[in-house]
Design goal:
flat; 16 helices; homodimer; mainly alpha
Chain lengths: 366, 366
């Protein structure tokens, strides 16, 4: 298990240093930069650092000694990268809330209003959030570089770091394109949703952090390959779980209003499977109810004024939830089987941790 | 002089590689990613690469041999970083045009409209531009890392790269804060404008690229110090010239509509000096005309419907243009004097080039 306190100290120290750099430029920047500092300090489950750490250990890296702080620097880099992704994603999705608080662009708009500034608070909030996300991305790169260089692992790790960032940003671009497209065919929608899931979430959350940890440790190719298979499966399952939470999740757990995915028009596998079931049922002689529900669902998705509970009930009635749960189970099993490929065999403690993380990332929340 | 063709080839090859990475994820991403590829390929005066190259030579780096391509990689990184800054800045400033073409967020909105996509084209355009800027920033870091590692110069160069990115982003944040603040005192406005200029433009455009080149070459401290003084002065003068162009520039030269800075409400040194002159004249017994002009200026700045020619004429009538021109001259002279501090003396060809760049970056355009 990664030393969560030590990681938190690393993150706090890094943020304190960067905050001081910014305030040395102008102390009035405390307001905006503290939005980012708090977001990174307080937030998240530190899932990517956990996977990075498992990759490091599975790849043969030592669990103690001077290298640990260097791995933790790269772990902190993953959290800063994630901060950039979330802060910018909330702008794109027009999300109001994140982790139970106002999204960063909303918090910055509130700063504007509170300080009696000139101009449009919403545009100011978006502008500040664009720049804070950029700062997080730049600082992520600084930390990666520092940690990987100190581990003398740049040649092995830089290609993974590069692929991960290009993938997550391309996955977000693809998500925009897919959400804006007028495709109605459920099979195509499912393929698109799976691809967005793979690049926007799965690779970025599990597969690449594991691979990055293994690369920092100079792991053999068979180990990297086994970890990547596990990571790809668990990553996809993690997003499938998130899709279920986005429709049926408890706001107290998710930190976001219930059914936010529905009114944001998010094109999930869950939604594609629900639409496929309704479309299939519509062709039956008794299909008029299914036709009506499909029309109601299509009219409501992406509409901020839609009845979220009603849309969720339609989806639940199709059997799509069970179908998604089945996929999650299959992926989890496949992931655990892949771990047998690690050479020269996975340390039992690391294996236990990866089993636990697979569970934590994909388990029913309630 | 930097080999412009070779730099262009380096940029083109790098962009082709990254474009292929994105299209491997999904070929539908060609539309958005090509906006970025074209923006970086076609655009700009390559000023930052020129300064980087001068810093490299001034610091003792060889003008030929295998290291040149590595320096050019870092030069290409500067152009990608600049692409991020401009693409995001155009969102923040709500700029419609850049380099004689639609700004990236406007071009992306046109893609949306042209393809018959769902949703709000403007929000789609902004979203795509946020992600393209992020990609440019991530790719800039990849290139910096590759080049600096190959030159075995990470320890020397990474702190400069880090400072440059934090500075330009903090300068942009400060610009937002200053533009939104309701400060009316001309002296305070001038101090704020000078500080924004220093961090948002001067350090980022001249001082840090020169220092980065010198760091890549392992230059002695006296050389770095002399180059930084030159760079800070020329950088500030460059922005003062840009401020004049933003009000009085020929759109055919600037690629932006005449007087765009005025209607965007940009808080420049030029504007602060004009307001200071009008405020001083207002206190005289014959000051009613000045009072009226100050009120007219304050009402028009930041108003998209304002009469740009009239605002420009008011500014020109205050003598602020001559005051800014004087500052540019003084800074240019001070910068050239600083070059005498380079040890063991600057190669005459490099000296000649830095004199020429000082002229090019700050000269009257018409």
């Amino acid at each position: 298990v990664i030393d969560a306190d030590r990681l938190q100290q690393m993150i706090a120290a890094e943020l304190a240093g960067r905050r001081a750099d910014v305030l040395a430029i102008d102390p009035r920047l405390a307001g905006p930069v503290d939005l980012l500092v708090r977001f990174v300090s307080d937030g998240g489950k530190r899932l990517r650092p956990e996977f990075l750490w498992c990759g490091w250990l599975a790849g043969g890296g030592p669990a103690s000694g001077p290298d640990v702080d260097r791995v933790l620097q790269v772990a902190a880099a993953l959290e800063l990268l994630q901060a950039c992704a979330l802060v910018h994603d909330d702008i794109l999705d027009r999300s109001e809330r994140r982790r139970g608080r106002p999204a960063t662009h909303r918090a910055a708009a509130e700063l504007h209003a509170g300080a009696g500034l000139l101009g449009d608070p919403d545009h100011y909030g978006t502008s500040v959030a664009v720049l804070l996300g950029d700062l997080a991305l730049a600082w992520a790169d600084d930390l990666f570089l520092t940690g990987a260089a100190a581990l003398d692992a740049i040649d092995d790790a830089a290609p993974v770091w590069r692929a991960m960032r290009t993938e997550v940003l391309s996955g977000q671009l693809l998500d925009l394109a897919v959400t804006a497209s007028d495709v109605r065919d459920p099979a195509t929608q499912e393929i698109d949703a799976v691809r967005v899931n793979r690049f926007k979430t799965a690779a970025y959350t599990v597969e690449r952090p594991l691979q990055l940890g293994a690369a920092l440790a100079g792991a053999p190719a068979a180990t990297v390959s086994a970890l990547r298979t596990y990571g790809a499966d668990i990553g996809v399952a993690f997003q499938l779980r998130d899709d279920l939470l986005g429709v049926f999740g408890d706001p107290a757990v998710t930190g976001k209003p219930a059914g936010d995915d529905l009114v944001e028009g998010k094109r999930t596998v869950l939604l594609a499977l629900a639409r496929a079931a309704l479309a299939a049922a519509s062709t039956a002689s008794t299909g008029s109810a299914a036709r009506d529900e499909l029309a109601e669902l299509d009219a409501g998705i992406g509409d901020p004024a839609a009845d979220r509970e009603r849309l969720a009930a339609i989806i639940a009635g199709t059997g799509a939830v069970q179908a998604v749960e089945s996929r999650i189970s299959v992926l989890r099993q496949s992931a655990l089987t892949a771990l047998d490929g690690v050479e020269p065999g996975l340390d039992p403690a690391v294996h236990h941790r990866l089993v636990g993380l697979a569970e934590a990332a994909t388990a029913r929340v309630h």
